[in-house]
What we know:
The chain is of the alpha+beta class. The chain has helices at 46-55, 68-74, 109-115, 175-181, 202-215, and strands at 5-10, 13-18, 64-66, 78-92, 100-104, 120-124, 151-155, 158-164, 167-173, 221-231, 237-249. Strands 3, 4, 5, 8, 9, 10 and 11 form a 7-stranded mixed beta sheet that branches. A two-stranded antiparallel ribbon has the order 1-2. Strands 6-7 form a two-stranded antiparallel ribbon.
Amino acid sequence: MCLFYGVLEQPGTLNFKGKKRNCVLENLELHTTPWSSCECLFDDDIRAIKFKAKFQTSAPSLVKMSDLAAHLEDKCSGVVLIKAQILELVFPITAVQKKQITLNVHSSLKSIFSSLPNIIYTGCAKCGLELETDENKIYKQCFSCLPFAVKKMYYRPALMTVVDGRHNVSIQVGSELIEKILLNIPPDWLNRVIVSSSGITYGMVAADLLHAFLALSEAPCLLKIQSLFVLDENSYPLQQDFYLLDFYPDNVKHDPTP
């Protein structure tokens, strides 16, 4: 396999040793420091900040910046950036029983932690469909994806209520974005102990991340959303749906315009 590879010689500095070309795809690939030599850095770590400033300069984005009131007035489908406050996350559990878990600024850390087993599910690794169990607690197969029969754990999609002034909307948040909010902690890691001597699990960290995320709801967050408006002949919205594509906390610099 053709690779770039490098060694972490000092904090925040990767020294690339060589490169090769992919003989199949005819393009260059990057392979950096081996995982065994890596250290997880949080966004506020000075080494992470220096590294991103040097290597992760983002290309100018052409996504339109708007506010929620103007976007609802325009009623134009498409991708837009808005600043809004996050009020709550609602996780539907089962459509049949119509149960849901609501997390907001008033949710305690203990209640969030106890809710974690209910906001994950086992589904088909190909299409994501939640799998039911039979009377022997054995997962049924996803018939639409047969003969593929691999299972995978997912975070449940959620509805995020955001507000900007007098306007509020509910935005659909997919499983991958929920995982990003939790700093990419996989759902099947929640019961794992991070350090055996401490007894701290990834689930405790995930609960603390959700608690902090919702506790800072007064601070606006930059949201990249996909909106879909269905209008009648008088431009009255018959249906309006919003989907979260990405999010940027307000303390992270992000320039959406060239």
